[in-house]
Amino acid sequence: MTNSLQGTRVLLADDHAMVRLGFRLLLEGAGATVVGEAENGEGMLRLYAELIPDLVVMDVSMPGIGGLAALERLMVGEQKARVLMLSAHHDDVVPVRALRLGARGYLCKRASPDEFLRAVTQVARNQRYLDPELAQAVALAQLSGAATPLETLTEKEFAVFMQLAQGRSVNDVAADFFLSPSTVGTHLYHIKQKLNLQNAAEMALLAMRSGLIEA
Amino acid sequence: MSFLARLSLHTRISLVLTALAASLLLVLAGIWLQGARTGIHEEVEAASRVSEQWLSALTAEMQTVPSAALAERVLGIVKPLGRIRANALEVFAADGQLLYRSPPPTYKAGRSAPGWFTGLLAPTFVPRALEVRGLHLVLNPDASRSLVDAWDDLSVMAGWALLLLAVLFVATRAALDRALRPLDQVMQALDRTGSGRFDTRLPVFSTPELGRISQAFNGMAERLIAAVNDNVRLETEREVDAHLQGRLEAERGVIARELHDELAQGITAVRALAGAIAQRTAEQPALNSHAQSIVAVTGEMQNGVRGILHRLRPPPSHGLAATLERTLAAWQLQHEEISLSQRLALGEVAVSDEVAQAAVRIVQEGLTNIVRHARASQVELLVTCTAGELRISLADNGHGCDGQPSPQAGSGLGLAGMAERVALLGGQLNINNRHGHGFCLVASLPDQSSIAILERQP
User: Fold this and answer.
1) Structural domains in chain A plus CATH codes
2) What's the CA dihedral at A71, A73, A78, A82 to 10 degrees?
3) Fewer CB within 10 Å, N- or C-terminus of chain A?
4) What pTM was estimated for this model as a whole?
5) Complex-level ipTM
6) How far, in Å, CA of B438 to CA of B401, rounded?
7) Residue A22 and residue B327: Cβ atoms within 8 Å?
């Protein structure tokens, strides 16, 4: 266990410096090398291109474009990238999204250090990993069919939805995603259509109910 | 009638009064006419009798007059007399030749009462005839002058009567107008109140009935104002409540975010760091066990934070609505031949876990029953959550229960189990077997948690 990560080059992305430090020490204790640390999704993308790590450990919620959008962009260019997503939330929507987008693993941040290392090891071996606490909810959500209207959103729309639901403006989101405001507007239109929403407040409410953002 | 109805109340009452007075006058006129008739009769009768006596005396005197001069003599006496007291006198010769007729009356000459009036009052008299040795004297009683007098009297009286009636009408109308003038005020006050000016008040009128109206009106306006004020106060209280609630929610949100973003992340960091120390101190049991303790304690702390977050913001994704929606979506996928219309009005109030669980079980059981027994094509589900009560209504359009054993034997526990579950929670389960029109299941579950929430609100 201790040396199973020997030689693995890891890129850490989390907006909390202390959390990064803790994970870094844990990973290094297990024999891995943390080659870079990013505090947002954009930084992760830049460092990945620079360092080509074996593994990315990334928080879902970060300032800027956030973890899911960063994951999506990363997978466009690097289909083979091994990413373990971390989240402080315990819903079933985000894990399903992340796994669909190509993340190899998904872990709650509440997990014990051993569980964290187990997850990293699994992903480093290019195996899939899903937090046992989430597994049941995710499986049930998949079984019951079209569980949530959020499922009908495309990945891009979902990313825009997440940003807008947090109260950011269309222009901010457009700037973050390098899109024209009118494109974001189109996404917004589709989101409202699909989810039957009227305004940003309802969007925030839905996101809150789905456990995607904090109250 | 419609014409009458269009007249004002004043005019109508005045008209009625005037008509009453007019009929009274008519009765009086009838009595007067009766009297006049008798009077005329007696007068003319008396005149005729006097005239007859006088003529009798005359004829007695004429017995001594020679026959040749008789006619001349009689005419000589009679002619200057003219009419004899309302009697026309005619003198005929023995051969029937008219020798003399008295001239028409000079009193009110040329005038006569209208025919109907004459017909009404004129007494009937037989002409009185006297014979003086071959000469025939005929006395014709003539009431026409008396009739003209009576007619003239009547006309004058009718004129006065009409004048009186007119004055009565005008006076009544004016008096009523004066007495009912407050009604206009009442009307205006009602209009003003109707248009929202609730401060309108009526003076206390001197007329007792109208005084009561104004008292009642003022009382009503007072109560109206009180009610409006109550409403405004309630509205304000509700707004303040909503505002406070919103502030509270926002504050809770801030606390939850800080707990989540700062504390939870900090704990995660400490946990990871402690894990790292534990990794590196495998050979130093004293240190290692402390690090392990930190890992364990931080795990508990995370659970604690999670609990607090849960309390601050019950995760609605695990709530009843989401669960029901999932259940229904899954059921619909399996039974596409049945059209399911659902309305979930659960509101913002979270229901207790037991009630939510029971609700889901009831819906599942009900849907299963429908598939098993009802052969329905339409199912209608309504779940509403009002203050302290969760209500589930599930109706289908199947054939209901026809007393036949169902083709597929169920567990037999369905309805009984459902009723038991509901009773356990202090609720009620009603099953309506609308024979031939399907089943209708209504369950109401009291929800203590929402009552508690309501009670907590001021």
Assistant:
1) 9-143 (3.40.50.2300), 149-209 (1.10.10.10)
2) 0
3) N
4) 0.47
5) 0.70
6) 8
7) no
